[in-house]
Structure formats: structure tokens, C-alpha cells
Amino acid sequence: MLSIKSKLNKLEKRLKPNSDPDEFAVVKEWVNQGLTFGQLTPEQQEIYVKYQGFDVTYLYDLFEVVPNFLLELKDPPPKTKAEEERQFRERVAEVKQLVDKAIAEYNAPAAVEARRKDLIKRGVIRETNN
Asked: From CA 47, how far away is CA 70, in angstroms rounded?
């Protein structure tokens, strides 16, 4: 009977995601140190992305902004449907805030002027006297 239980445990471990809880202990240390994503090495960034379970840099890449955000620990999984919905609304608000900030940075007069000067320099557009 014991060998069957042992085999079952091994099979269950294989079916679970490839992460053991201690693998992400270092993430907690980084958060406690107040590190930002930009301060991590590429290998450490991969660990943080794996810990979060999704590519946290996607929006930054989309808006061509350097990802240098403060590292955070994940929220524990929701225990109730209401808690799950609350967490979802919070995430939506966070994403909206990030997108709004990226759009504001992209449309800032200095950024617009820098892009215009770059296009003139590359000969894509001509300078006008407006």
C-alpha cells in the first residue's frame, strides 16, 4: 500500500507546475529589499515573471517604456467568489492606471517633440515653419 501512495505522490508532483515554494523565496527577499524590476539581472527577471505567472513586462514593451517598477508579492488566491471579483476589479484598475500613465508619457509634449525631431533627422518628415 505504501508504494502505491509513493507512486501517486510522484505522479502528482509531475502534474503540478514546475515550481517548488522555495524556488520563489528569493522573490520575497527582493521585495523586502525594495528592488525594482530594472535592478534584476535577466535571469532574475525570468524568475520574477515565472513567480507572477504572466509576463509583467508586456504592457511596458507595448508602449516602449523601460520596465522599472517596484517588485511585489502576489496576493494569496481568493477564498470566495466575492473576493475573486474584488481582486479582479483591483487588477483592472491597476492595468488601466498603467495604460493611462504610459499613454500620458507617450503623449507628453517633450516626448512628442523628441519623436518629431527623430523623424526629421531620419528624413521621414520635413521640418515645417508653423
From this structure: 15
Provide the 8-state DSSP code for 116. H
pLDDT score for 15: 46
Cα(38)–Cα(86) distance, integer angstroms:
29
On the CB side of 121, CA atoms within 13 Å amount to 6
The C-alpha cell at 24 is 520563489
Give the 3-state secondary structure of residue 56.
coil
pLDDT single digits (tens) 57-92: 776 777 777 777 889 998 788 889 999 899 899 989
Gap between the Cα atoms of 89 and 24, Å rounded: 26
Torsion of CA 126, 105, 38, 28, to 10 degrees: -160
**4 to 7, 10, 13, 14, 62: CA distances (angstroms):** 5, 10, 14, 15, 50
